[in-house]
Amino acid sequence: MSWRGLRGCWGWYQQQLSRRPLRTQVVTSTALWGAGDAIAQHIDRRMSHPHVANAHMGDAHMADAHVAARVSVPVGSPQADGAASPDHAQGCSPGSAAHPRHLPTPALPGRAAESFNYRRVLTTALFGAGFVGPLGHYWYEGLESFVRTRMGLRPSTMRFVAAKLFLDTFVFGPVHLAAFFTYTGLVAGHSLAQVRRDLARDFVPGFLTEATVWPVIQTVNFKVVPVQHQLLFVNFFCLLDSAWLSWLKHQQDAPWKAWLTSTLFGDSDSSL
Fold first, then answer.
1. What percent of the chain has pLDDT over 70?
2. For FRET with 16, which of 23, 54, 121, 199 sits at 20 to 30 Å CA-CA?
3. Is residue 9 domain-resident?
């Protein structure tokens, strides 16, 4: 896209934000949180099935050799009808000639890769629509007003930024994490008792990571970004944040979670 096209898109977004601020924030949050979960699934599949990734690399080198030798694989042959890799499924249409990097990969016995979970993307996107979008919109507007009028701090000063950073980290941050893990657990059909156990397991690793990364991002946000664009700024980083939270949630009982919680609190089996 050209620079003029980007400026046109930005102008259109500005117009929508001015006319329909809440709706625009909700739509933006929905799209970015859904995309974040899709990224998380891709990362999780790569980490869970390294042998599949290695097989792809081997097949790619073999494919290059076949192409160099001008050997083609006809559509409908046993080689073309083998189980396709995720890359192949995304990169080729049925009945078309495959790019050498996306040739079909035979399924490994007993270790088939999990299919892409569209329902999980939808539920994560709905969290962006129902929680992050509306609450984030009112949170940043209200936070600006509270720190400026109730606390009497001048905008863009270090005390102003520090106050907003503290409230965002220790008020909005825990609420956001608890809401995400509770929502995803309930949507998955877990009981309230199981949701509480999962929350106890996931909250500390999630909060520590968020508290390490987000203050840096929010310092820039609160210092230089106009308040009406602060949620948009956050939403771009939420693309990565939602990928991290979705990945963390679906790690389930990974040993490192219990180790981290027990190291900090001395009891990995404690519940909220």
1. 63
2. 121
3. no
